[in-house]
Design a protein that fits this description.
2 copies of one chain form a homodimer. Chain A contains 11 helices and no strands. Chain A is an all-alpha fold. In chain A, helix 3 packs across helix 4 and helix 4 runs antiparallel to helix 6. Chain B binds a DNA duplex through helix 2 and helix 3.
Chain lengths: 206, 206
DNA sequence: TCGCATCCGTAACCGCAATTACGGATAGCG
DNA sequence: CGCTATCCGTAATTGCGGTTACGGATGCGA
């Protein structure tokens, strides 16, 4: 099987895995169920992914790719506008069925491998970008001076709060897009009040 | 077995259960291991708790009792001082090994029973108390006017952030008491800046 | 065309832990 | 003193799902 063909096949398998997860929870993602749903054999699954944890690690990696592609908005343009666009999207993503299922799987993994991968490709990748955007906003005067890393942590705390753990334990349903938008807006407004811009020249829009 | 004797025996069993959890993770809490550690029989465990989920529910209930006893500080005296004392304790509790293990167990429970119990006896019990304290602080002028419930949510978000889910997936170790204290202080300071007290008479101390 | 590698489908194998069953001991109680 | 209820200790039972094994099909290079 040529390399690109195999890439495509893996994408199919992982898509089937996510379909199982989103439909029946991460408990529904058994190797047998995946083999049947993807039309693959056990032998292939184990040859390609090693074991069940490896499969989940691959899912984490794929999720990270998808997430990163939706985050390019942070790179350029008005940083505050970028944060305003990022907030709802990020919130919806981390409280979505996929991310929640991955979190549950990581919580159930005694080795911590999955959790480390999830954190590395998720939070640890996103927060520095947010800190960069905040630093640019501070440079422009759209936010008052301060430690960008600390401000980014505060923003994340305001935006996400404890929603993820509450989702993980099934205490709350997935928030609606409207809820995500409102919460993101409130988080950004609070960030502005915690780092109030100096008065004379509030911001640029270039 | 008389009722009080049985109460004491249950307390022993549940203490043994927590000891197992804190030592080897929630995966180490098997019914057999608990029976041996507590010197109890399978028959008794199943007669008293029904099944494994029932056992965890009992652990949640006991944890809630212990937590509530440490929260009486919110009732009286200076509300801001009460929040200042509560913050580090609450943060240390929800990121402690016990609470994290219960969260993991709830995440692994497909029925959501455990998660509902955990939320009801935990967050849903605490946040209204915090809102009450904030309302009193607003009345006294120690905080500026606003919606106490909303302010309580903000305080929780600032205090806890996403620490719980990161603990659950083993992305971070348990925070030290110093870290808890610093974070709680920062959260309260931020709350003051988001709800700045009016100038003339900042607070009372009665 | 032949041989090899890889894949599919299905069927074992296997360990683990929840759950159930049972015999012996002990305490309250008429 | 027997009787009953409850508990302890240990041993089956059971089901589930990860993992492994194997026979047949398919494609690809020599």
């Amino acid at each position: 099987m040529k390399a690109d063909r195999r890439q495509a096949r893996q994408a199919e398998i992982e898509a089937a895995a996510y379909a199982l997860i989103e439909q029946g929870g991460e408990g529904a993602l058994t190797m047998q169920a995946l083999a049947r749903a993807a039309g693959a054999s056990m032998e292939t699954l184990y040859r390609w992914y090693g074991d069940r944890t490896g499969l989940f690690a691959a899912l984490v990696a794929r999720n990270a790719e998808d997430a990163a592609s939706g985050m390019s908005m942070l790179a350029d343009g008005d940083p505050m506008a970028a944060l305003a666009r990022l907030g709802p999207k990020l919130l919806a993503m981390v409280t979505g069925d996929r991310a929640v299922a991955l979190n549950r799987a990581a919580a159930a993994d005694p080795t911590g491998t999955l959790g480390a991968a999830l954190a590395a490709s998720g939070r640890d990748a996103v927060v520095p970008r947010i800190a960069d955007a905040i630093a640019r906003a501070m440079d422009r005067g759209a936010l008052g001076p301060g430690d960008p890393a600390e401000a980014a942590e505060t923003f994340i705390a305001l935006l996400l709060g404890d929603l993820q753990i509450r989702r993980a334990i099934r205490a709350i349903p997935a928030p609606s897009p409207d809820t995500c938008a409102a919460r993101a807006e409130a988080a950004l407004a609070a960030l502005r009040r915690l780092y109030p811009p100096v008065l004379d020249e509030p911001a640029r829009t270039d």
